[in-house]
Structure formats: structure tokens, C-alpha cells
């Protein structure tokens, strides 16, 4: 569904990613791991189109999207929860969700003033915040909003960049439950950047480990006991 | 009592003109953060739009229809300024986002070019636009206190522009997209919004509103190619004093400057009044550098 071929990308003069290849199959949860600063977020940003690829290509649903703007990629079915949540702080919670609907392929949903109830059933607390500004929510609430904002477009691929970073433990549990339930429903593939090995072990189908801008290890769930995994992940 | 009423009315009238010329800038500078030195020239474009409409009505339409030219001129001024604003965004401004110094110089250059273009087309001397006859005269409150219809009309025009902008920015789908893009461009793009289109339209709308301001200025006096340069400083002052990025701040900024300007001029004289107003603004911005209505959120604290 998503395949990245020999991607090279970076900021300004510096090259961050070298020769990165990765695939996500429909319904799979693919976990991207690695220490801080190895290029995980840079890879995610290149997949979303926020960073231009210097070399290589990104295919989504069989189409080459390497040169496409982020908006087009989102509309073709990629939902994105960025690191640091990136809620529109001056917009109300309701407005944040309406913006999320922009990428929904169903035009009646896009125009509707009502937030589709099935889109936010995983976050029952959100409707009580509708009138509040996004910036006034706590970090955990913002993360739930960011999740709902991505899910509301009915994406076929959900890209999650450290969704549990800096969040209180009870909401971390909620978010992990949401990721599990999306996986169990099997309709949406997930590309997950995550530090917690215990959690990815319980939910992931395929694993990639990055170091210095390249993929250094990949495998399935049964391969995770490989000593190389610990070598690449321990500090 | 009568003096107070007429002074307050004068203050409101000055405020309404300040607000009108600042509204477009509240979008191009306030929301988009483009230091748009060509804003005054969009006012000039609007003014000449009104002049052209008047000439067309004079030459081609029966005299009985002449008074109807002004509402038509408002629309035409908006459309011309909108179109030129759109063109400018697509060809120049879009390469300069996030580069305030470059955009300052580039838009200043564009302003000079537009002034020269106006000089070539319409000639250097000022031209007069005849106001429609239904705006002559005034409303007599009590003897000696007359509120000119032209001033009342400008106040009403500003109020309607403001209301329309409020509906567009805060109540429409396009306005919501616009606010999302201005707050967090990358994230808005990742949620499926075409930021290019939103940028071009937002800049064009700001320019269009400057065009309406130019059209209204033809009611006050003659217009010339450099009319915009008289107003550009005031426009920036209003937006900065009010707080960049907030529509309500622009309204407050215009009201504050307009009313205090009138009062100080009444108590002292014209030039000293202006000096006092500037001193107050400088002092205020020392105290609150973000202006009257700063954008504040938890994430910025």
C-alpha cells in the first residue's frame, strides 16, 4: 500500500536520510524504531510530503506520489498525527475536527456541519470540549484531538509519530487501546513511530529500526528477540 | 454638549476611515504576516477603479443613471484590486513567505511600479470623482450640528465590510481553512488543504478590501497616483497597535487612534495633536509590545 524506495532527503545542505526503503501492507501495523535523532521524523515528513525527496520515490496505493503536495497525499487517504500534536490552537476543537474532515473522500461528510459520530466514538470525551479552543486543552486531550482529527478523514493509512510521547500514563493506555482496536478492525494500516518496545511488540506486524538515517534492521514479530534489536535500541 | 456630540462624531468618522484602510492590511499583514508596502497602492487602484466607473457612466449611460455609479464602483474597485492582488501573490508574494525583509523591499518596489503605471495611464495630476447626489448634504441633529451623509455612509460601509469579513473568516468553511493555514501551514497541508489556493485567495481578498477603501476615499477628496502613500503608515499603525492577527484588535486600534486624534486636536492643535497621538502609541507599545489584543494561548505561555 505504501512503499518507499531508496529515499534520500534532508534539510538544506545536510542529508539526513540515505537509501531508505520501507513498505506497509493494507491493514498492517508497521513500527519504526530507533534512538533519538536517527531520522524517524524526517522519514515521516518525507512520506507526508513536507520534505522533498532528493532521490528515490514514495508510492501510495500503486501511484507515485513523490512529487505530490502534502494536501494531495492526505486526500488520497493518508491520515497524519505529527510529533507534538500540532493542534490549531486558535481554532475550537470542533473547527479542528472540521479541518480534519477536509481530506475525507465522502463529500457529504465534508460539507456536513455535524461531526460524524462514528469518527469520534473512540474519543467519547471530545464532544464536551467542542467550544473550547484547541490550545486550551491539556497535552493528553490535544493528543486525542489530533488522533480524532486524523481518523475523521477515514484514512487507509494512518501515520503516527510518537503518539504517546509526553502524555500521562492513563491517556497513553487509552491511545494504545485505540491503536489496537484500529489494528483489530483491519481497515486501516498504521505506520507507527514508537519508543516503547513492549507496546510495539504487542501490536506490530512488521518492524524497522533506523540508525544514522538508514534502516539497519527489519523483521517480523517473531524476530524481535534477535540480539541485534537490543543493540540498536539501547542507549 | 453639541460640541461633544460633534467631536465624538468626528472621532468616529476618522476612526472609520482608518479602519477601512487598515482592514485589508489586517489580512495581508495581520494574518499572512506579509509586510505589504504595496497596500497603499491597492487603495489607489480602488480609487482609480471608482474614477473609471464614473467616467464610463458619464460617457455611455444616460444621466439619470449617474447616481447609481457608486454602488457599482464599490464592486468594480473590489474586483480589480482582488484580481491584481491575486496576480501579485501568484507571481511574487508566494516566493517570499517567511522572509519579511525581502517581502518589504519587493512589495515597496511593486508599489512604486503601480504608482508609475497609474501616472502613465491617468496622468500625474489628481483627478476628482463627483460624489453621487444622494450623498450630498447631511443629517441635522440640532442647529449647528450636521452629520454629513458621506461620513455616515463611510461608517456604514466600514461596518458592512467588517461584518462581511467576520462572516467570511469566522463562520465560513473557506475562512476556517484560511485560519488553519495561517496558524500552522504544514499541518493544514497534511490534512488535505491546498495551502497555495488559500494563500492566493487570502491575499487577493485583503487587496480587494483595500480596493473598497480606495473607492470610499474618493468621497473625501481628489485622488492621485500617490494617494496610497498618505495612508500606508496609518494602516500599519492601526494593525500593530491593535495586535497583529486579530480582527477585533484592528477595530480597537482604529477607534483608539481616531478618537484620541480628534480629542487631542480639539484640545491643542492639528500638529500637536498628531504628536501626542504618536507619543501615546509609542508609550503603549512599550507597555504592551504585542498590541491591544495579543494572540495568547497555553502553548505560547
TrEMBL record, chain A:
Protein name per the record: Urea ABC transporter ATP-binding subunit UrtE
NCBIfam families: urea_trans_UrtE
Gene3D superfamilies: P-loop containing nucleotide triphosphate hydrolases (3.40.50.300)
Record domain ABC transporter: where: 2-235
GO molecular function annotations of the record: ATP binding; oxidoreductase activity
Similarity comment text for this entry: Belongs to the ABC transporter superfamily.
CDD domains given in the database record: ABC_TM1139_LivF_branched
InterPro entries in the cross-refs: AAA+_ATPase, ABC_transporter-like_ATP-bd, ABC_transptr_urea_ATP-bd_UrtE, BCAA_Transport_ATP-bd_LivF, P-loop_NTPase
SMART domains registered for this protein in UniProt: AAA
Keywords from the named record: Amino-acid transport, ATP-binding, Nucleotide-binding, Oxidoreductase, Transport
From TrEMBL, chain B:
Topology class, membrane: Multi-pass membrane protein
Gene that this sequence comes from: urtB
Family annotation (CDD domains): TM_PBP1_LivH_like
Recorded family membership: Belongs to the binding-protein-dependent transport system permease family. LivHM subfamily.
Protein name: Urea ABC transporter permease subunit UrtB
UniProt keyword terms in alphabetical order: Amino-acid transport, Cell membrane, Membrane, Transmembrane, Transmembrane helix, Transport
Coiled-coil residues: none
Residues passing through the membrane, by range: 12-31, 69-88, 100-118, 152-170, 201-223, 235-263, 275-295
Location within or outside the cell: Cell membrane
Major location category of this protein: membrane
Amino acid at each position: 500500500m505504501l512503499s518507499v524506495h531508496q529515499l534520500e532527503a534532508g534539510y538544506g545542505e545536510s542529508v539526513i536520510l540515505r537509501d531508505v526503503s520501507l513498505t506497509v501492507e493494507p491493514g498492517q501495523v508497521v513500527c519504526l524504531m530507533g534512538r533519538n535523532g536517527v531520522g524517524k521524523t524526517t522519514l515521516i515528513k518525507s512520506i507526508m510530503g513536507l520534505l522533498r525527496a532528493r532521490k528515490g520515490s514514495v508510492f501510495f496505493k500503486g501511484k507515485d506520489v513523490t512529487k505530490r503536495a502534502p494536501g494531495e497525499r492526505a486526500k488520497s487517504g493518508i491520515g497524519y498525527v505529527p510529533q507534538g500534536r500540532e493542534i490549531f490552537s486558535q481554532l475550537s476543537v470542533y473547527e479542528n475536527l472540521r479541518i480534519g474532515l477536509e481530506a475525507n473522500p465522502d463529500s457529504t461528510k465534508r460539507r456536513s456541519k455535524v461531526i460524524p459520530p462514528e469518527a469520534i466514538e473512540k474519543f467519547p470525551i471530545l464532544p464536551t470540549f467542542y467550544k473550547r479552543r484547541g490550545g486550551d486543552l491539556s497535552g493528553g486531550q490535544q493528543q486525542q484531538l489530533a488522533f480524532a482529527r486524523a481518523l475523521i478523514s477515514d484514512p487507509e493509512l494512518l501515520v503516527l509519530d510518537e503518539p504517546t510521547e509526553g502524555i500521562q500514563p492513563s491517556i497513553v493506555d487509552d491511545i494504545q487501546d485505540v491503536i489496537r482496536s484500529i489494528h483489530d478492525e483491519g481497515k486501516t494500516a498504521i505506520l507507527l513511530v514508537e519508543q516503547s518496545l513492549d507496546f510495539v511488540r504487542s501490536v506490530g506486524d512488521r518492524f524497522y529500526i533506523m540508525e544514522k538515517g538508514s534502516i539497519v534492521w527489519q523483521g517480523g514479530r517473531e524476530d524481535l528477540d534477535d540480539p541485534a534489536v537490543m543493540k540498536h535500541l539501547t542507549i | 454638549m453639541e460640541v461633544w456630540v460633534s467631536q465624538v462624531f468626528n472621532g468616529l468618522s476618522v476612526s472609520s476611515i482608518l479602519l477601512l484602510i487598515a482592514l485589508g492590511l489586517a489580512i495581508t499583514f495581520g494574518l499572512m504576516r506579509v509586510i505589504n508596502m504595496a497596500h497603499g497602492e491597492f487603495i489607489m487602484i480602488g480609487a482609480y477603479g471608482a474614477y473609471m466607473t464614473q467616467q464610463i457612466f458619464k460617457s455611455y449611460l444616460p444621466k439619470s443613471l449617474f447616481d447609481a455609479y457608486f454602488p457599482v464602483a464599490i464592486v468594480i474597485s473590489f474586483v480589480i484590486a482582488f484580481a491584481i492582488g491575486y496576480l501579485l501573490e501568484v507571481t511574487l508574494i508566494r516566493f517570499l513567505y517567511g522572509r519579511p525583509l525581502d517581502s518589504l523591499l519587493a512589495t515597496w518596489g511593486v508599489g512604486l511600479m503601480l504608482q508609475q503605471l497609474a501616472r502613465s495611464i491617468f496622468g500625474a495630476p489628481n483627478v476628482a470623482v463627483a460624489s453621487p447626489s444622494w450623498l450630498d448634504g447631511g443629517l441635522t441633529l440640532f442647529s449647528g450640528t450636521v452629520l454629513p451623509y458621506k461620513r455616515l455612509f463611510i461608517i456604514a460601509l466600514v461596518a458592512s465590510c467588517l461584518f462581511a469579513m467576520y462572516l467570511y473568516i469566522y463562520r465560513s468553511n473557506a475562512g476556517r481553512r484560511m485560519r488553519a493555514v495561517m496558524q500552522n501551514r504544514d499541518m493544514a497541508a497534511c490534512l488535505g488543504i491546498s495551502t497555495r489556493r488559500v494563500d492566493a485567495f487570502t491575499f487577493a481578498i485583503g487587496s480587494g478590501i483595500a480596493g473598497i477603501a480606495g473607492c470610499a476615499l474618493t468621497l473625501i477628496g481628489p485622488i492621485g497616483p500617490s494617494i496610497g502613500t498618505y495612508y500606508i503608515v496609518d494602516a500599519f499603525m492601526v494593525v500593530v497597535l491593535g495586535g497583529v492577527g486579530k480582527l477585533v484588535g484592528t477595530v480597537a486600534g482604529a477607534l483608539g487612534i481616531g478618537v484620541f486624534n480628534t480629542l487631542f486636536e480639539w484640545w491643542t492643535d492639528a500638529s500637536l495633536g498628531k504628536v501626542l497621538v504618536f507619543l501615546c502609541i509609542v508609550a503603549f507599545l512599550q507597555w504592551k509590545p504585542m498590541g491591544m489584543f495579543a494572540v495568547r494561548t497555553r502553548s505560547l505561555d
